Amino acid sequence: MTQLRLLGYPVSNYVNIVRAALIEKQLPFEFVITRASQDASFRELSPLGKIPVLETGEGPLAETVAVLDYLDDAFPAISLRPDAPFERARSRQTINIIQLYVEAQVRQLFAGVFMGGRNLPETEASVRGMLDRATAALTQRLHPAPFLLGERPGQADIFAFYNLGIAERVTRFVYDRSIIEEIGGLEGWWASMESRPATREVMADFHKSFATYLADHGAAYRADEPLRLVSDA
Ligand SMILES: N[C@@H](CCC(=O)N[C@@H](CS)C(=O)NCC(=O)O)C(=O)O
Questions:
Q1: Beta pairing class for 4-8 and 29-33
Q2: Where is the GST C-terminal domain (predicted)?
């Protein structure tokens, strides 16, 4: 099998999703520390210059959702998607809701939280409005039993864990609000996800790099900011 290479940086929630999926699928891969870049050479690998990129034997792939589907299509032995079409669509529905209406929203606030910038009150207000709708949607949709689509963790669980984790940090910091507590019923699921070996490996590297990242950016956020649901151990 061609060696898979994951290009990315351990602070990135999207990089961490792909890395966790590779570990859960027990696929051998090389993790190559790489920052996002607008250099023409990097945009050959990632059209928007974003991380993660997965280098495959067939070429480079960017966009996390595409990478997750490629991994499950190309290496189905351990699948992270439900087999049944409806359940599979429900998995994608959850991923889309979190990607568009949670992660892409809180990302608009990263500058003022993690990067030493300032967020405009209008941005904080518009993000809050969409988060209200997303929280209601996820309260309706997420009922772990014990994982989001049944007995085994899948794409939706991994996607939700890393993206709700970063959203939790932002919403606590900006709004003094816990998106995870508002959704409700996620404590057991969160603890199960947090204790998985894949999560421990990925989060260990996250914590090693996060404090440095915040210091380098003069961020208002502190790496040891307490999160009730996220163990910073
Ligand atoms: N839609 C992309 C988002 C990836 C993303 O936003 N990556 C961030 C790091 S978490 C990045 O590369 N940021 C640099 C930039 O936007 O130029 C995906 O699904 O992979």
A1: parallel
A2: 84-214
List ligand 1's pocket residues with C-beta within 6 A.
Answer: 12-14, 36, 49-52, 63-65
Helix 121-141 and helix 85-98, axial crossing angle in degrees, nearest 10: 160
Q: Locate the ligand 1 atom nearest the alpha carbon of residue 18 and give its number.
A: 20
Q: Whose CA is nearest to atom 11 of ligand 1?
A: 50
CATH of 4-74, one of 1.25.40.10, 3.40.50.1820, 3.40.462.10, 3.40.30.10: 3.40.30.10
Distance 14 CA to ligand 1 centre (A): 7
CA dist., res. 78 & res. 27, Å (int): 9
CA dist 87 and 145 (Å) reads 14
What residue's CA is closest to ligand 1, atom 6? 50
> How far from chain centre, in Å, is Cα 155?
11
Q: Give the chain's mean pLDDT.
A: 95
Domain boundaries, the chain: 4-74, 85-216
The pLDDT tens digits for 109-168 are: 999 999 999 999 999 999 999 999 999 999 999 999 999 998 999 999 999 999 999 999
Ligand 1: centre distance to CA 63 (Å): 8
CATH dotted code for 85-216: 1.20.1050.10
Tokens representing residue 215 in the block? 């210091």
